[in-house]
Amino acid sequence: MMKDVIAIVLAGGKGTRLEPLTRDRAKPAVPFGGVYRIIDFTLSNCINSDLRKMLVLPQYKGFSLNRHIDQAWKFLTPNLGEFVEVLPPEQRIAESWYAGTADAIYQNIFRIEREQSRDTVILAGDHIYTMNYAAMIAEHRRREADLTIACLPVPRPEARHFGVMHVDAQQRVVGFREKPDDPDPMPGYPGLALASMGVYVFKTQLMFDLLLSDAQRSGSRHDFGKDIIPPMLDTHRVFAYPFRDEARKAAAYWRDVGTLDAYYQANMDLIQIDPLLNLYDPSWPIHTYQPSLPPPKFVHADGDRVGAAFNSIVCNGSIVSGGQVHRSLLSPGVRINSFAQVEDSILLEGVEVGRHARVRRAIVDKHVRIPSGLSLGHDPDLDRSRGLTVTELGITVIPKDEDLERFAARH
């Protein structure tokens, strides 16, 4: 265990672009990939990197996140110095919510100081990827860096959503702009920009000094990318660390699932024959809470009533009873009734699809019952007229516990 390192997971974003999935839960607590929550990937990276001191800093709608961490992440041993602690805002230092990423850590500085860590790893709790942070920490120490920033090339139009860096031949960061309207291209690659992943390794004491100084500076937005990092470039040793994907596929996999369309596509990536994100690698397990449920079951194979799933992920407790599922993800406890058709969709826990119902290109949140004969996702304009969310790419999204019976009589 890397006893002289603490990991801090920022989990405070509202996730407004993921509504209605974030109406009742924080973005890092949104279900993903059948059985996981988004935050499980960051926390699993920590465990697999031998980092076992983790602080999670939520802010909004924290009940679901707190419950999940309590169920899934209490296998660590506090007596051995291992922990995952959730630290909700206490207004101990300031009488306000977290004003920015730097302020979130500043307001918890007393708890962080107790660990007396040599280095601090700062992570986002809302990205999907696999990464060995221990290798990044080793490089940080080898270079005697004050700050190391994980980075990867992204298409320039997408780089507007990230911090964009310039580096010299030794990977030293010589320029940094947070979410620029006109991202600078990488030398020799005009279509790409070098983006920060929001993964930082700081010398802990230096981080404290910078946070204290920033807290006292009027006009600061108290954000790492805007206020902490740019002034460091001329006075401190700041280096970039190229992202190394533990899946070791042809292309590195890192996804910011901050929009409904990005969330949908990242889930759909998992049902490919050889997905870039490998959930089946025993050397890099993704930990989560697994409820005690029976195995999935497929029943009926008579005439045109066939219970089957093709190119899909089907989780425990699900029953495909005489319906058919194509290119979809069924979370635990989903039921597909006879003659129903589900295509290119994500069904979260406890969803039931009635007889002869049709679901296509949809995200259906927990415990929704789709009435018999109802069609969803086949006519985006009709779904909009029903008051349902339809994304730019035409994905219909059904909120948690939504009552769809009012539409049943028309179809």
From TrEMBL:
Chain coiled-coil ranges: none
Pfam families the UniProt entry points to: Hexapep_GlmU, NTP_transferase
EC numbers, comma separated: 2.7.7.27
Protein name: Glucose-1-phosphate adenylyltransferase
UniProt cross-references to CDD domains, sorted A to Z: ADP_Glucose_PP, LbH_G1P_AT_C
Ligand binding (alpha-D-glucose 1-phosphate): 98, 163, 178-179, 196
Keyword DNA-binding attached: no
Quaternary structure (record): Homotetramer.
Enzyme class: transferase
A GO BP annotation: glycogen biosynthetic process
